[in-house]
Amino acid sequence: MSDYGKIILGLVGFLVLCTSPFWYQVLSSDGLPAPELKLPVGEQGCVESKEYMRALHMDLLNRWRDAVVRDGERIYVSTSGREYQMSLTGTCLGCHTSRADFCDQCHTYVGSENYCWSCHVEPINLRVEAR
User: Fold this and answer.
1) pTM higher than 0.70, yes or no?
2) Distance from C-alpha of 42 to C-alpha of 23, rounded to nearest angstrom
3) Phi, psi at residue 102, to the nearest 5°?
């Protein structure tokens, strides 16, 4: 019966040790402000809503890649019913022309690697209109 204190102390120590990276991040964060993105001038909207693109753009681009490469599909129909060419260079980079001002801002902020540029060229002014 006297070992309960040791067991509880051991469990608390284990939990503190396991969650220490989380607590370190919370306590040492310098409160970086969210990145200020330079959005495309004159654009009415993206292929999906801002909230969707913020959370799931990587999934969308992966689905586009698979659909184009594996299935030969080239047209994406958004939830609004508009059709877009499934093309990172032709569609996305047609509006977001500066990698440094758009893509790199968020990827640096969240600490993720943007590997799109291992296959794709830097953004250039290619404009493909939605149908």
Assistant:
1) no
2) 43
3) -125, -70
Where on the phi/psi map is residue 121: left (φ > 0), alpha (ψ -120 to 50), or beta? Answer: beta
3-state SS of the chain?
Answer: CCCHHHHHHHHHHHHHHHHHHHHHHHHHCCCCCCCCCCCCCCCCCCCCCHHHHHHHHHHHHHHHHHHHHHHCCCEEECCCCCEEECCHHHHHHHHCCCCCCCHHHHHHHHCCCCCHHHCCCCCCCCCCCCC
Angle at the Cα of 15 from the Cα atoms of 12 and 21, rounded to 5 degrees? 140
pLDDT 10s digits, 98-125: 888 888 888 888 888 887 777 776 555 4
CA distance 131 to 35: 31
| Spatial CB neighbours of 104, under 8 Å, sequence gap ≥ 6 | 114
